[in-house]
Amino acid sequence: MRRVIVGFAAFFYILLLWGCANQTTPTGGPKDETPPRLLRSVPANKERNFKGKNIELVFDETVALNNPKDEILISPTTQQEVEFKVRKNIVTITPKEGWKDSTTYSISFREGIRDITENNAPQNLKLAFSTGPSIDSMLVAGRVKMAMDIKIPEKITVALYERDTFNIFEDKPNYFTLIDKKATFSLENIKRGTYYIYAFKDNNKNLKVESRTEKFAFLANPIDLTGPVDSLVLPLVGMDMRPLAINYIRNNGLLTKIKFNKNIVGYQVRTGNGQDFAHSFGDDQTEVSIYNPKPIKDSLEVFLHASDSIQSLVDTVFYIKPVTANSIPADFKSTAGPIGYNLKTNLVVQEFTFSKPVKSIHFDSLFIRLDSLNKIPLTKKDITYDTIFKKLKIAKAVPFDSLFRKPPPPPLPGDGTGKTKGQEPLPRARPLLPPQPELTFAKGAIISQEGDTLKPQKFVVPEIKKQSTGTLLVKVDTQEPYYIVQLTGTDGTVVEEAANVKEYAFEYLAARNYRIRVIIDRNNNGKWDPGNYFTREEPEPTWFYKTQDKKYDFPIRANWELGPIMLIF
After folding, report:
1. What beta strand segments (E) does 88-200 contain?
2. For 471, which of 57, 279, 416, 561 could close a Cys bridge (C-beta 3.0–4.6 Å)?
3. What does the DSSP 8-state code read for residue 380?
4. For residues 536, 539, 541 and 547, what is the CA-based torsion angle, rounded to 10 degrees?
5. Residues paired with residue 497 on neighbouring β-strands, in sequence order
6. Beta strands, E only, 338-468
7. Do the Cβ atoms of 342 and 349 come closer than 8 Å?
8. Is the bond leading into 76 cis (omega within 30 degrees of zero)?
9. What does the angle CA 418 – CA 420 – CA 426 come to, to the nearest 5 degrees?
10. 63: helix, coil or strand?
């Protein structure tokens, strides 16, 4: 009997030890919202002449590491392996080869250390120390923004490079940090010197810019760091800086397709013998489609010149050889943009993108139908066609009253006076509303380069009541000589724009929310330019209007006039 009791006691003791050895999140009670508090560290913050190898941080409660290699940032950048360990309330950081002599290090812990109850992280925990007799004290701070949007960027790396021969696509920075939730950054304990600053979305965490997939920002001029710099603004852009190259050229007999490694903005093609042929962008702007001329007896020499947004060029010669067609021509399709009537210009407008280049337009099959008896024909001057982009734009001037006609009053009942003998007046009959006008593509209106046509299509022109629209008045106060004032929707789509105006009226606006964006058009070319890293050209600046309550959106109401609002930039 005694053996049984002893055995049970030993089993209970083992269970107790096992339970103590496993840390679990306590349940019950109020939620723990207090982050861990640093009690002490070795070295201490701002300590000089530190000669140890291990950094040790002691907290007031048990903590855990959270992705420390990504969250705990050590500047200057170290190329060696760094080991992170935690034991209860003690965190140690150990570089494999030790700390570099006579160097000031700054460590930002971000979300790399948390408590084990509610994952609270110490707020703005940083540690700076020096392995030499002095500690660097320079500061670089500012914010990162989207160049063409008000959206606050997230998880952006800001980096400093000390050499003027570095390459942000190949080299790692000397100092780096990450922006906070407000997109602001602060690089502290930097040594005096001259630096170049960049920001980028480091998706693969290699501390190098991958321009094909990562947005980035840069300042063209270096920062001469002899004192604190705390008001920098870095605008992010998406700009593929890879050299332009051809991936492949393929001929299926009907088409020859040239595929590039990225988008191009323009191209030119010509044959060696001067033969005409149709060509356009393909499915997107990474592809050029050439419609093989017929017949090709031997081979056709083709000269190709293409450029991208950073003026990277491709100049090449290739040959189209006779090939038996091994593919079936694709269907001829169109994508229609929204149709509308501009009350300011009295234009019916709509844009179409085609799957193939247009060979011919039959204008007798293209018109605006008012009713079964009346229609307004479209003519050549009403249409603009871009052969390269396969886009057709219609802008037909039609007076409002001609397009949206009022119904005639119905005849009076009875004897024509509205009365019958010995009776009360009869009610007037309800007027018949005229049909809505329709932009009509009859069969055979558009013929493609391959001889097929679109199916018949109709697009109702919606009537906009003037009293349902509003007006926005703006005044501009600036020293900039060239700029573009853009009225956009809340999604960034441009509704209307005006260049270099001091006063302007945006009229006949649909009742909804809007934003105002201003482009500082430095080169006065009428568009925003994203810049070029290789030629040290920064993106053209942008400015966004804010209301008095610091909001970007503002409403336009029906039958109402807002403004004038002041645009000061």
Report:
1. 90-95, 104-108, 113-115, 126-130, 138-146, 157-161, 175-178, 184-190, 193-200
2. 561
3. G
4. -150
5. 486
6. 340-342, 347-354, 358-361, 366-369, 375-377, 383-386, 391-397, 438-441, 446-448, 457-460
7. yes
8. yes
9. 45
10. strand
Give me the phi and psi of 230, to 5 degrees please: -135, 20
Identity at 19, one-letter amino acid code: G
Q: Exposure of 538 by Cβ count < 10 A (0-12 exposed, 13-18 middle, 19+ buried)?
A: buried
- How do the pLDDT tens digits run along the chain, 569 residues long? 334 344 444 444 444 444 444 444 455 556 778 899 999 999 999 999 999 999 999 999 999 999 999 889 898 988 889 999 999 999 999 999 999 999 999 999 988 999 998 899 998 899 999 999 999 999 999 999 999 999 999 999 999 998 878 889 998 898 999 999 999 999 999 999 999 999 999 988 888 999 999 999 999 999 999 999 999 999 999 999 999 999 999 999 889 999 999 999 999 999 998 888 999 999 999 999 999 988 888 899 999 999 999 989 999 999 999 888 777 888 999 999 999 999 999 999 999 999 999 999 999 999 999 988 899 999 999 999 999 999 999 999 999 999 998 776 666 655 555 555 555 665 655 555 568 999 999 999 999 999 999 999 999 999 989 999 999 999 999 999 999 999 999 999 999 999 999 999 999 999 999 999 999 999 999 999 999 999 999 999 999 999 999 999 999 999 999 999 999 99
Q: Which of 478, 474, 493, 484 is nearest to 520 (CA)?
A: 484
Q: Please give the Cα distance from 569 to 562 (Å, whole number).
A: 20
Q: Closest by alpha carbon to 437, among 367, 492, 494?
A: 367
Q: CA-CA distance, 497 to 514, in Å (whole number)? A: 13
Task: Give the C-alpha separation, 559 to 511, whole Å.
Answer: 9
Q: Determine the 3-state secondary structure of 335 from DSSP.
A: strand
- 62 SS3 class: coil
Rg (alpha carbons) of the chain, rounded to whole number = 35
Beta carbons of 439 and 461 less than 8 angstroms apart: yes
On whether the CB atoms of residues 72 and 86 are closer than 8 A, the answer is: no
CA distances from 440 to 174, 255, 350, 353, 367 (A): 63, 31, 12, 16, 5
Structure tokens at 144: 């990162």
Q: Is the peptide bond before 295 cis (omega within 30 degrees of 0)?
A: yes
Tell me the whole-structure pTM to 2 decimals.
0.80
Buried (b) or exposed (e) across 133-144, using 16+ Cβ within 10 A?
eebbebebbbbb
List, in order, residues 6 or more apart from 426 with CB less than 8 Å away: 413, 414, 418, 419, 420
**136 vs 119: CA distance, rounded Å:** 33
What is the helix (H) or strand (E) element at residue 508, kind and residue range? strand 503-510
Looking up tokens 């003998």 gives: 421
